[in-house]
Amino acid sequence: MPRDSKVWLGAAGIVVRGEEALVVKKAYGGLKGKWSFPAGFVQQGERVDQAAVREVLEETGITAKVTQIVAVRTGVIKEEISDNMIVFLMDYVSGEPKAQEGEIEVAAFLPIADLIVNPLSTQYMRIILPKLYAQGAYLTGKDYPIDPVFGYTSYQIFS
Which of 108, 139, 132, 133 is nearest to 35 (CA)? Predict the structure, then answer.
């Protein structure tokens, strides 16, 4: 996604392993020094769920599988930039956390209960995590036959 675009679409992954969630501390920007979920921009030619899987792997070395959408974070930055993030719950598949050089200071699985009250956790993490298992049904993804009208090459609906 071009950084000069005024509409941003990002994807984040909450990878859960037991009672812990995978978190990172970014090495730069507004989230430097704070715990956040692995996340980044959707790239040209990929679905938003694929972006979440890619970002988790790139930032942490963890392989994970998307299961559900748990939140949508949307806001406007300085009355100009539409900043949108789809947050996915993900199943841990394999690997041990390893911070991406130059991007991430620390990658780790930490207790969810601790992250909820940790002052170094991002605000949206402290809002989302307490509701993680309390909401009941979330939006789950399913592949459907591709509708040829628009020329999709990859197609999934979360409902």
Answer: 108
